[in-house]
Fold:
Amino acid sequence: MMKLIDTPPKTVCWETLLFLLASCLCAIALMLAGLAPARADALADAVNPLPSIPMLGMEQAITRLANVQDPRVPGVLKALRDGRLFTIKTSGRMVFADPKDDGFKLADALSGEALGEAERFDIKKVAVNNALRNVLNAAIARLELDAPDARQRLKAVESVSQNPNPETLSLLAKQLPLEKDGAVREAIQVALALADLAGPDKALRSKAIHALEGNLNQDVRNRLAALQEKTDAGDYIEADSGIRNLAAVALKKIEFKLELNHLGETLFFGLSLGAVLVLAAIGLAITFGVMGVINMAHGELMMLGAYTTYVVQMLMPNSIDLSLFVAIPAAFMITALVGIGIERGIIRFLYGRPLETLLATFGLSLVLQQLVRSVFSPLNRSVSTPSWMSGSLEINSALSLTLNRFYIILFSLLVFLALLAILKKTRLGLEVRAVAQNRAMAKAMGIRTDWVDAMTFGLGSGIAGVAGVALSQLTNVGPNLGQAYIVDSFMVVVFGGVGNLWGTLVGGLTLGVADKILEPYAGTVLAKILMLVFIILFIQKRPRGLFPQKGRATEA
Amino acid sequence: MNPLRTLHHFILMAALLSLSLLFAATSRAEDTIKVGILHSLSGTMAISETTLKDTMLMLIDEQNKKGGLLGKKLEAVVVDPASNWPLFAEKARELLQKQKVAAIFGCWTSVSRKSVLPVVEELNGLLFYPVQYEGEESSKNVFYTGAAPNQQAIPAVDYLMNDLGVKRWVLAGTDYVYPRTTNKILEAYLKSKGVKEKDILINYTPFGHSDWQSIVAEIKKFGTTGKKTAVVSTINGDANVPFYKELGNQGITADKLPVVAFSVGEEELSGIDTKPLVGHLAAWNYFMSVDTKENAEFIKKWHTFIKNPKRVTNDPMEAHYIGFNMWVKAVEKAGTTDTDAVAKALIGTEYPNLTGGVAKMNKAHHLSKPVLIGEIQDDGQFQTVWQTKGLVDGDAWSDYLPESKPIIADWTPPINCGNYNTKTKKCSGQKF
Structure:
């Protein structure tokens, strides 16, 4: 453990500091010992030897600790599970340690007394492995069956019902009449019904099956399915045909419900992939769709947006939760400025020459990639996910939606609506549409087409930057981020219909859902190929995409 | 200005420049031994390979401080094949033909090694390959200092099966030769242990895959049938980051459904928030956290060389460390850098592992190493939870595939063959 620690060069000899720290701690310990002699009892006896126990003996030690009657036990068990329980090397004292700046903030494991801060190498973690974490979770759950927080209780009940034994079942049965929270009640009822199902009494068993009907809990499904299994000789494992048939009916209902939930999940996955495609493509829908510029550096603009997120997080490391709200406008500004620079510096000399534009912007994309490699190193940068975007939203026990994807769907719709509003409701939008329809006429009406071109390209690029912020939450932030999305973006714009924002939205979402429906059957690689083949065929039939522009504008 | 004169000027300048370059090259070639470093410094594999380039520079620098080799200084020749597989072959040719390097240290992905293979065989060069790989190969010109499947994949599966009681298996990998061959071996191995077809789920994804939602959901569904399930991951490169993120988001924790990875080490973890990954596993021959004197020394040297005390060390770095030092020993023993002499001297060469024991280059050009299984900790390090009793000898041809079972590699007379069938007594493929 010691050599992992980063030891920054020090001017002060740290042994002296250590000595001072140790003597301080000893003093505090003595004081505490004087204050609370009676409480340093069974709990202390169970906790203090933990660091010296070998891995094999830990399970026993944890059981012993869990059986101590003391309100502080769950806290200690949780700290042990979460890797927060440390021992001070010099004094052997047990502490909770939480990372703070470069060191750790300590609190006494028994008294909760704050003990100041310590360096990483002053303390040693009490190590646990997966098997022990399971033991710990079970022990914590048993203690938390009557916790005041309903969510805690629910988790405890679910954990206990994984491996029920007569003791925990009687605890659950005792808890049931006292329980007020609906979800917890249901979980307890399921656990008890499953126990009844395993029992010998036939009446109780068929009652249990009725109670479990339509329940989406995975244990329920597995247990009911187990009743239908045959032995290798071809006989049913469950001898009672009445119970077996009852279970089969219940299982069928559950399977049907699960199928529906699965469909919902696939739809969500598809929409979320589609939302990412829409975000990536919508900036391109402006630059390519409205202006007719084939911008191969579009992906690199997204990459710049993602790197902006990284830089913003570097600048405000203590408020990651807020960082995205700063990163979105920052990324928009930066990539919009870069976009305007590209338009003024390169693209305006190449209007009407699509091949040259394609080559020039492709070259530019390589330049931008190398620039990022030189500035940030070729290695991927790690962008943190704000806590409000981690985890998932549980709809029922078979369907949960991951929060990051959920927010990105919302965000992409928001960006789409904002862009639509800009194009339809603002003067800039009016001018953009005018120039796109008939450049000469717009010029004759006094519109500064140069300026409109620069602004339009800036807008498209800015949106790409915003998409980059969203992508930084889903994928790796590295120099190659843009390349991965450029083909998809063009695909969506061409499929949806060039020059039509609604086409981009519908096209992106359709492709996303279609891809996710195909994926389980065809595999990731083949699904992608099938999508491309489909689009090629579609474009043969309808060269102008899903929503072709109508009227004279199409001639331009 | 007269365009013709400009042209003349230009030609003169170019001639002078190339002459001076030539001169510089020849004058230096006399008192140095060149060592080629063939690692991607850009592209998707740069995340892993850049570190190996730095490791090699450190090892060469250190050897020079000790007085070089055979009285000459070592000179590193670094080229960038840019994660582009055909470019690996071109760069290898450049190193061997133009630069006349004595040995090449390089490649990461198996496809890059396969691309370099014909070049080093044709030009009779030496390649030290430092990464764990799928086996089923042994070349006279290549020394495999990473793990063969029996030194990583098989022990890891044994651990899951015996110690964690895993009954259902997801084999997830990136779509190229290493995961496909490894999974083929693992599938055969699992079936030989009585695992049924329906209890194995195999899934492949492209390089750099980022949308893992439906695959993770499928794994989750596969893992909720009541039987203990584990994921054996041969996912390579940066696709791992969104994969682990998605696992965390969908609430798959290590105590319910552990993932054991063969391509995720300390370097890859340094780019991710490891909190949700605590308890997931990896199998390697080296962990930075292993407590030996040699390892502590190596880490210290690395931090001094790279001037960043936060940088981590990993398994392929150890492989280069062993490979380079073995090469030095063999050159000293042979008294020359001639490929054939060095290759002969390398077999049987011994050098201490950083994790304990002594690595020995065997007749099949593989090493003997200990196998470690570690759990990911919240600081991005691994805590060893299991390790083999002694060292495991690298086996080039897997014993679990029916077609490669009778095949052995032995680069000593009288067999002298990397693909020798013990049943038919015939050598196929490369033979010299």
Remarks:
- Residues 144-239 of chain A form one domain.
- Chain A has three domains: 12-132, 144-239, 261-388+401-555.
- Residues 1-12, 30-39 of chain A have pLDDT under 50 and may be disordered.
- The two ends of chain A are 69 Å apart (CA to CA).
